[in-house]
Design a protein that fits this description.
Keywords: Signal. The chain has a five-stranded antiparallel β-sheet, with helices on one face. The chain is of the alpha+beta class and about 180 residues long.
Length: about 180
């Protein structure tokens, strides 16, 4: 009789444990995919202009690359004599919080773009871009906090302390968790 009670009690405990379900708690940071919503020029002297429009992102197919369409041109040769300043504002409590991340890249204009955004570097030589796919991968930043960001890049010549920047670009983007496995097609 006691063996039967022990067996039934064990079965009851196991059946109760299978009924308990918990929800997955999303982490705040990790491997990510960047989704560009808008790319807009901000005030500059007009020497370098990037007018690009990203395509729509399909959440059901997160490994499909976004495409860029637009124009870009420069009055100057873009070399490593540029200062680059990146300011990322984060969206929190329905407002932008400036200076969430600040990066300064002195004396390394083109090299920084090539090292930190290699797939964008691939299409920079084109004057007109039409449905050019781009992978928003940042090899030097494998982990980032998830959320909505306003990414602002300002460049100036290194030897000139101009108040007006050479170029300025604002990207409204979102950093989302990277899916673990790419689906087979």
């Amino acid at each position: 009789m006691s063996l039967l009670c022990l067996f039934l009690g064990g079965a009851l405990v196991l059946s109760v444990l299978q009924q308990v379900q918990s929800k997955y708690i999303n982490s705040f940071a990790g491997p990510f995919i960047v989704v560009a919503h808008t790319i807009e020029p901000c005030p500059s002297d007009g020497s370098v202009v990037l007018m690009l429009r990203p395509s729509h992102f399909y959440p059901a197919r997160p490994f499909d690359r976004q495409t860029l369409t637009g124009q870009m041109w420069s009055k100057h040769n873009l070399t490593d004599n540029l200062l680059a300043h990146v300011d990322m504002a984060v969206r929190s409590n329905n407002q932008w919080k400036d200076n969430a991340f600040v990066f300064k890249f002195p004396n390394s204009g083109c090299s920084v773009l090539r090292d930190h955004l290699p797939d964008m570097w691939r299409i920079m030589g084109h004057v007109v871009v039409k449905n050019e796919s781009v992978s928003w991968t940042f090899p030097h930043f494998p982990v980032m906090p998830y959320g909505r960001y306003k990414f602002r890049v300002v460049t100036r010549f290194m030897n000139k302390a101009a108040a007006i920047p050479l170029s300025c670009l604002t990207v409204d983007c979102e950093i989302i968790p990277k899916p673990t496995v790419e689906p087979k097609q």
